[in-house]
Amino acid sequence: MALPLMRKATAVWLVENTSLTFNQISQFCGLHELDIIGIADGEVANGIRGMDPISSNQLTQEEIEKCEKDPSSRLELTVNPATAGEKKRRGPRYTPLSKRQDKPAAIAWLVKFHSELTDSQIIKLVGTTKPTIQAIRSRTHWNITNIVPTDPVVLGLCKQVELDSTIAKASNKANTGPTETVGQSERKLLSTKKSMEEKRKMFEVEKSFPGENKVDYLEEKVGVQENNRLEAEKLFTKDIN
């Protein structure tokens, strides 16, 4: 879902200048309805100046008036400025020299507020290296005391749509992860039970017919049968005489 730039500032302007419902504003700005209620009560977004979405071509006055008349309708983003100039990128991300010093601050922000992101996702967003990410995660970076976590979008290291898409993918993966782990654990448990059952059966067979004494056991059995036959023949001969 496309979201406007500066969502809280946009929400502040809509609360102050329109009669839209809290739900309509929360849906359009991608914020929780309680946040919008807090903005209206003055408890949230204090000091944030409202941003007019009409002047930035993100909304039209006609769209706002239509939604004010029909509370069940939803605001639609006219133009998404975050996608302006966005092209499919091939190869590693290039970061201008003037912004490379901002990478540690962006990494610190991603690690702090979106711990679900993997190192590879952060590398793709910011264009950094795995050792740098690990150093910031473990707080062993040489300049860690001077690093201030800052949104990579504000620093111009990535687009808002890229950040939102990456966070959504990471969240979905995190939600589906435990289900897969449970399934793998169940399969592993069944495999272990099956293996234990097979070993038990093999032990019972070996107990009945010891492998290393099997030949001796058969020879002993044949000898007993031969002795029984000879004794029977002696008795039969004795009775005839």
Q: What structural category arises from helix and sheet content?
A: mainly alpha
The overall pLDDT, averaged over residues, is 77
Question: What letter string, H or E per element, gives the SSE order?
Answer: HHHHHHHHHH
Proportion in helices? 55-70%
**Proportion of residues in extended strands:** under 5%
Helical stretch count? 10
The largest pleated sheet is described as:
none
Residue windows where pLDDT falls under 50 for at least 5 positions: 82-86
The total count of strands amounts to 0
Radius of gyration: 38 Å
Q: What's the number of structural domains?
A: 3
N-to-C span: 111 Å
Q: What is the general shape?
A: elongated
Describe the protein.
60% of the residues lie in helices and 0% in strands. Helix 5 packs across helix 7. The relative contact order is 0.07.
Relevant terms:
241 residues, mainly alpha, 3 domains
SSE inventory with pairings:
Layout: H1 7-17, H2 22-29, H3 33-41, H4 61-69, H5 103-113, H6 119-126, H7 130-137, H8 152-155, H9 160-208, H10 214-240
Compact overview of the structure:
The chain is mainly α and 241 residues long. It has ten helices and no strands.
